[in-house]
Amino acid sequence: MYTLITAANSSQAYKLKNILDSESILLGEYLDLPELLIQSGKVLKLPDPESVTYIHEMLALCLDKEINNIYALRREEKQLLLSAQQLFGEYNINMHVADDKI
Questions:
Q1: What is the pLDDT of residues 35-72, one digit of tens each?
Q2: Which run of H or of E encompasses 42?
Q3: Which has the closest alpha carbon to 80: 65, 92, 91, 70?
Q4: What residue ranges in 9-93 does DSSP mark as E strands?
Q5: 40 in a domain, yes or no?
Q6: Which of 43, 102, 44, 97 is nearest to 72 (CA)?
Q7: 11-32 pLDDT, tens per residue?
Q8: How many domains, the chain?
Q9: Cβ–Cβ under 8 Å, residues 70 and 16
Q10: 14 is in which domain, residue-wise?
Q11: Quick check: is 102 in a domain?
Q12: Is 84 within the bounds of a domain?
């Protein structure tokens, strides 16, 4: 099982990754990133929170990539994912809202 940290283009994501200190951490980003990062598998392309199907796309991604923990770093992602916490919980996917002081 994996842990997903969003906002992969932020220093906060890398700080959290170092704090969690696990090899089973995936970084994800919905903003534009160099294609090389995505193709290399170092960063997952996440759905845009503006999408009306965001929750379903994130759930599908988590199930496909065997993600059981999500640390949402951006406000838009936090709000949407926390509103669907019960749905994700039914699939044993835990939501963690990262502290802004990381």
A1: 777 777 779 999 999 999 999 999 999 999 999 999 99
A2: none
A3: 70
A4: 25-29, 43-45, 67-72
A5: yes
A6: 97
A7: 999 999 999 988 899 999 999 8
A8: 1
A9: no
A10: 2-97
A11: no
A12: yes
Inter-residue contact 26 to 65 (CB < 8 Å): yes
Q: Which residue has the tokens 């392309």?
A: 45
The reported pLDDT for the residue numbered 102 is: 45
CB crowding 21-34: b at 16 or more within 10 Å, else e: eeeebbbbbbeebe
Q: Is the confidence at residue 98, as pLDDT, over 70?
A: no
Q: What is this structure's pTM?
A: 0.89
Structural contact between residues 31 and 41, judged by C-beta atoms closer than 8 angstroms = no
End-to-end, the C-alpha distance of the chain in Å comes to: 23
Residue 45 in domain: yes
In the structure encoding, which two tokens stand for residue 68, read together? Answer: 């059981």
At 96, give phi and psi (nearest 5°). Answer: -130, 125
- Strand order in 2-5's β-sheet? 43-45, 25-29, 2-5, 67-72, 94-97
